[in-house]
Design goal:
With 525 residues, the chain is α+β, with helices and mostly antiparallel strands. It has helices at residues 13-33, 177-183, 224-235, 238-246, 273-289, 345-357, 394-407, 459-467, and strands at 55-61, 64-70, 89-96, 104-112, 119-124, 132-139, 142-143, 147-150, 161-166, 189-192, 249-251, 308-312, 316-320, 362-367, 412-416, 422-428, 438-444, 454-455, 471-485, 489-497, 507-516, 519-524. Helix 6 links the parallel strand 13 (316-320) and strand 14 (362-367). The radius of gyration is 22 Å and the shape is globular.
């Protein structure tokens, strides 16, 4: 448990007692979540197919994977229960070496418990490195779809890596057409960089989707049942389900997964610290229940261990960051204060230590918010910087890149979401000097749906390109980024969709860049 997260709540004896009573209760759920079930456990009758929210896998290791599903016979039940009875349900699972599930290599029984919204998180071990597997679940006489997953390569292997990443998928803003395209790719890994859900109320007709929704959706998510319902709505999308079943995922959280622009300074809307931490506890709990995370990730109250490191063979290590829980309060006027931090001292030390120890050819930092400096004004001598991005924490950014240089980190690359636009930028140690050599590159990916259809160029994009010589590409359509990591190069394809506000959009590659190993500069592919 990271104690600095609890301090804002510890302002009174009463709130202290409430906090630790809550934490003790959740600790019991953590223990339950890691106890396997038995084929002899009694199974309550289920009224319908419980696998309406699909299947997923995550956090690949050379010898194992996490398998996920959440039972929901009525996924959009207003109370967030998924229509499930308030009883444990045994769920059989199996993983095989073939897509017809004939060569089963591991199987068992997990227990889907109402305390965890009838989700299961199975840690499968004893698998072979760097190979495909297929998996499925069975409960209530029903069988789930079959998902495909893949273990990470052995760290000694220089196996090429194909991965994609996405962010910002406001359900009511559009159709998940980009995920339909992603599901058709032959990927080793998928990353989601935040804003998986949006906390805002949704109208009765479901925005541009023109889908009738009950009144329960037309309120901001504040409670655990409301967050569970929002995840159920999001995960009921067939294109998203297909992408989640096609490859293993890793996830991190951003602001809308809890509340817009939240940080360690608590609620930006001015609510009480106690109420905000209850909201964050509910949001974190629902995120765990609905994502393929390891059981050890289950939050304790408003505290969740999000940042992690995934080594993918000898070529790539993914350093997955948490840029919300530990950041200093937003203040653009204090951006050069060395005491301010985006990551917090503990995570910053963890990141630099891991980067310094890494023997991977490519070190990929999975990052929620824009890292490159972005001046939004072309007027000479003026700057317009966003305090929510790394521009609001410029001293911390300088410290990070000084540490990377000091350690001689091999090929640092930043992948980013959040901004609802595509950008490709060269990162600088000194942005005041246009001739300063780049120290790394950043591939910022647009949203899946947030912001509507978008356009190839905007007036703002024109200004950005004119006032930031290190920014090499801008696009404002929807889509995702697909990458291939090889020994000598890393390639990034910006996949865009021509429309999301109506079904039937078409995906295409808008632009591609290549970075050569040892040369942190963007080249057209």
């Amino acid at each position: 448990m990271k104690p600095e997260l609890w301090r804002p709540l510890l302002s009174s004896a009463a709130s202290r007692r409430q906090l630790f009573a809550y934490a003790a209760g959740v600790a019991g759920v953590v223990a339950l979540a890691q106890v396997p079930g038995s084929a002899n456990d009694p199974a309550p009758p289920l009224r319908a197919n419980p696998f309406t929210l699909g299947v997923s896998s995550g956090d690949p290791r050379p010898d194992g994977i996490v398998l996920w599903t959440r039972l929901a016979t009525e996924p959009l039940a207003d109370d967030g229960s998924g229509g499930m009875p308030p009883e444990p349900v045994p769920v059989r699972w199996e993983i095989a070496e073939d897509d017809r599930m004939r060569r089963v290599v591991r199987k068992g029984v997990a227990t889907a418990r109402p305390e965890l919204a009838h989700s299961v998180h199975v840690e499968v071990k004893g698998l072979r490195a760097g190979r495909e597997y297929w998996y499925r679940f069975m409960a209530g006489g029903e069988t789930s779809v079959t998902g495909r997953t893949k273990t990470a390569p052995d760290p000694r292997w220089n196996t090429e890596v194909a991965f994609a990443y996405a962010s910002c998928q406001q359900w009511e803003s559009g159709f998940y057409t980009a995920y339909r395209d992603m599901a058709a790719q032959d990927l080793d890994l998928v990353g989601h960089l935040g804003d998986y859900i949006y906390e805002l109320g949704i109208g009765a007709t479901g925005g541009v989707r023109r889908t009738q929704l009950s009144a329960a959706h037309n309120a901001p998510t504040m409670t655990l049942s409301q967050y569970r319902l929002r995840y159920a709505l999001t995960n009921s999308d067939p294109d998203l389900q297909a992408a989640r079943a096609a490859a293993p995922w890793f996830v991190t959280l951003d602001d809308h997964d809890v509340e817009d622009n939240w940080g360690s300074d608590l609620s930006p809307t001015g609510g009480s610290p106690e109420n905000f931490l209850r909201r964050r506890a509910a949001a974190f709990r629902a995120a765990f229940e609905n994502q393929p995370m390891r059981p050890s990730t289950l939050p304790t109250g408003p505290d969740m261990s999000i940042y992690q490191r995934i080594q993918y063979g000898g070529l790539a290590t993914f350093h997955v960051l948490d840029e919300r829980q530990f950041r200093s309060p937003a203040d653009i006027n204090a951006r050069l204060d060395p005491a301010r931090t985006m990551l917090g001292a503990q995570q910053e030390a963890w990141l630099l230590d891991g980067l310094g120890r890494s023997r991977s050819t490519w070190n990929i930092m999975a990052n929620q918010v824009m890292m490159f400096q972005l001046d939004r004004l072309t007027d000479p001598g003026l700057q317009q910087l966003n305090p929510d991005t790394w521009d609001g924490y410029a001293a911390g950014r300088d410290r990070l890149w000084a540490g990377i240089a000091e350690r001689g980190v091999s090929n640092p690359v930043v992948i980013t979401g959040d901004a609802h636009v595509n950008c490709a930028a060269e990162l600088k140690a000194d942005y005041a000097n246009p001739d300063a050599p780049p120290v790394g590159v950043e591939f910022l990916g647009t949203s899946i749906t947030s912001g509507g259809d978008g356009s190839d160029m905007t007036a703002g994009g024109t200004e950005w390109l004119a006032s930031n010589p290190h920014l090499k590409f801008f696009n404002s359509q929807r889509g995702y980024i697909r990458c291939r990591v090889a020994k000598d190069t890393m390639r990034a394809d910006y996949v865009v969709v021509d429309k999301v506000t109506t079904p039937g959009g078409t995906a295409s590659v808008r632009r591609s860049f290549v970075v050569e190993s040892g040369r942190p500069a963007l080249q057209d592919a």
